[in-house]
Amino acid sequence: MSYETAKKPSVLFVCVHNAGRSQMAAAFLSTLSKGAIEVRSAGSQPADKVNPAAVEAMAELGIDMSAEIPKVLTTEAVQESDVVITMGCGDTCPIFPGKRYEDWELEDPAGQGVDSVRPIRDDIKARIEALIASLTPAAK
User: Fold this and answer.
1) Which of 5, 27, 84, 140 has its CA 20 to 30 A from that of 117?
2) Contact 126, 30 (CB under 8 A)
3) At how many degrees (to 10) do helices 52-59 and 114-135 cross?
4) How far apart are CA 44 and CA 31, in angstroms?
5) Is a pLDDT exceeding 70 seen at residue 90?
6) pLDDT tier at 1 (50, 70, 90 boundaries)?
7) What angle, rounded to 10 degrees, do the helices at 114-135 and 21-32 form?
8) Is the dihedral of CA 73, 76, 77, 81 positive or negative?
9) Which residues are identified as catalytic?
10) Angle, CA of 72, 78 and 80, to the nearest 5°
């Protein structure tokens, strides 16, 4: 299989409302992987809209999440992903053999202002950078 035809790794981020942590993680992964990784996010009980403080915190770093809409978690999204990351919120995902599952214990930004969301955002960014390093060949 040549490099061009190799399947991109895919990651699914899950939190209950798909409005804060999972949206920030997906936005970071999309931006920082420059398209090398397929990105999905979802929640078991999606909110009506993305957390405005999360949108503001990401905008401070030049990442626009304002058009994102929380999505419902489906079995298909889990099946189609190589890595499934839950965000420390007790969500349960269907388990399929051969998938990599991680649970990231992260504070919930719901109802908090941007000052409280920034440290969560920065924690997520560091985890995303490590995730990218684990999923993509090192650039020489």
Assistant:
1) 84
2) no
3) 70
4) 25
5) no
6) very low
7) 50
8) positive
9) 15, 89, 93
10) 115
Please give the helix or strand (H or E) that residue 42 lies within, else none.
strand 38-42
Q: Which of 43, 14, 11, 17 is nearest to 109 (CA)?
A: 17
Give me the count of residues in the chain: 140
Count of CA atoms in the C-beta half-sphere (13 A) of 108: 12
Q: Compute φ and ψ for 121, nearest 5 degrees.
A: -55, -45
Please state the rounded mean pLDDT for residues 64-84: 95
Residue 125: enclosing H or E segment and its boundaries?
helix 114-135
% of the chain exceeding 70 in pLDDT: 90
Structure tokens at 116: 């409280």
Q: Side chain identity at 92, as an amino acid letter?
A: T
**Based on the number of CB atoms within 10 Å of its own CB, is 50 exposed (0-12), middle (13-18) or buried (19 or more)?**
buried
Look at residue 37 and tell me whether its pLDDT is greater than 90.
yes
Please, are residues 136 and 36 in contact by the beta-carbon 8 Å criterion?
A: yes
Mean pLDDT to the nearest integer, 78-88: 91
